[in-house]
Description:
Blueprint: E1 22-23, H1 24-31, E2 36-40, E3 48-49, E4 52-55, H2 57-63, E5 73-76, H3 81-90, E6 102-105, H4 112-120, E7 124-128, H5 134-147, H6 164-175, E8 178-183, E9 188-191, H7 200-208, H8 213-221, H9 224-230, E10 235-237, E11 248-254, E12 262-269, H10 279-299, H11 303-311, H12 321-328, E13 336-343, H13 350-367, E14 372-376, E15 379-384, H14 390-406, E16 412-420, H15 426-440, E17 449-451, H16 452-470, H17 477-489, H18 493-502, H19 507-514, H20 518-532, H21 539-560
Parallel strand pairs: 4-5, 5-6, 6-7, 16-17
Antiparallel strand pairs: 1-3, 2-7, 8-9, 8-12, 10-11, 11-12, 13-15, 13-16, 14-15
Helix pairs in contact: 3-4, 6-10, 11-12, 15-16, 16-21, 18-19, 18-20, 18-21, 19-20
Amino acid sequence: MASDNPHPPAGGLPVVGDRPGIPLRELLIVLGSTLVDLLDEPAGDEVVIRSVALVDGSDLAAESGSRAPGSDLYLHVGVTDSEAAHWLRDLAHRPTRQRPRAVLSKTARQSPALRQAAREVGVAVVAVHPQARWGQVYPLIRGMLDRGGHDGGEHDLLAADTDLFGLAQTVARNAGGMVTVEDAHSRVLAYSASNDAADRLRIQSILGREGPREYLRILQRWGVFDRLRNSDEVIDLPAHPELDIKHRLAVGIRRPGADSTVLGTIWLQEGEQPFAPEAAEVLRGAAAIAARIISRTLDAPSTEALLVQRLFGARGSGVDVPSLAGALNIPMNGPAAVIGFAISGTPLTDPLRAALGSALRLRASAFRGDSLSASIGDRAYVLLPHYQSARAVTAWTRQLVERLESGGIPNLRAAIAIPVADLTQVARARGEVDRVLDSTAATYPRDRVTTLAESRTAVLLGEILDLIAARPELHDPRLTALFDYDRGHAASLCESAEHYLRHHGDVRAAAEALRIHPNTLRYRLRRVQDITGIDLEDPADRLLLELQLARHRRTTSDTEG
Length: 561
């Protein structure tokens, strides 16, 4: 796991408040047998999971010997069998209540030493399918912990009105078959338990957390997605044994309201028994419920998200920062970094906003376990408390922008405020980051990632020009005649003056840049002085002229854009 912190705190993202937790059995049911398999349960499968950590070998080594409580559930990413066994044996020095409840590992099935060490300290071992992606498993578990689980025994469809996984399980029971809920980009949001009747399309979708590309192309060719976009009806898709695609029903999920934005799809695969007679009716009801759940997820942040937004200064003044830091379990003092992200030239739709927010949260958590992220308006922000290396933060941000763009999030820009003295300065730093993002919007893609220090001149100059533009009394009336002359005569006096000023009064250099004879430029400069009455030999006049020309150019480009 990449990190600039040699000793990242255990437990992944901080636990906020008192969570009721989820029994391990219920967590595994929701993850499904396609993804996970419980190998050993020395303390039973009813142990309660309240927190999760995504760790590698270096994280376990840093934690070794610690007596502090860690997380209830550990996801071992790239951890060798010997590293895992050594860490598990070291847990014997902790009180039982401070030990993890379970470990998820892709190599556990082939590691007797790991399983024996886990049994000795009473830790459950769960095997994860080798093709599963940790980058999808981790946020899936975090999402379930944030929601606090669901009542798997409730058969009333409306009882699942707050949880997509609960909804999927309920639809599967009432409609028959196996359910997958996907977003508008065919990424899997939730699914019901699978059995041996699951076809290859379902298995690969769950393992990869999105529909396999070759199958998506087939569905596109068949016109399935067009039908889902253009109709509220349940679509019946016959089986195609030659492609290992079984009989399915599908219905689109649409945002409530006038715009009816497509938010995703509910797929119901036929299992060992035919669908229930009321399957289509159940799916239509489920689509309406899923639309409310997804819309609330997009529109209403969680309790933790609200706390983070307050820390970033998005919910009014008078914030008790020390209390917030305590609730979020992050250090109050020490240098921090605030990074803002914006998208240029592309409408920020709800699915794109959600994709950016979830991707940032995952990547930032992998970089630093104590990172925090928030989506505020059309921008997203990451806080890295008590970082160790400014260079590492900048390098990670550049790499992150490249990865997210290659992953389908277009025209991404980032601005970094570093160092931030302590958490009381986070809201102010976010304001500084916004100033940078505002000032560099016109220079994308040149300034894709920049820091406050690198952009200070551009930010301050841009704000000075905006101030001048917003106050007509600061507009020099002498320039109006020059602008009118250029428009009326299709002339280039303004451009000529700008190049002259940009080249510090070097006529030959300015003329070369304009590709005209120096005498031509000298003539134009005399015309500028005649029309405006400005003396180009006077330093104060030159400064004023440069500001007024820059203000005019900025205003004109904004109007044309």
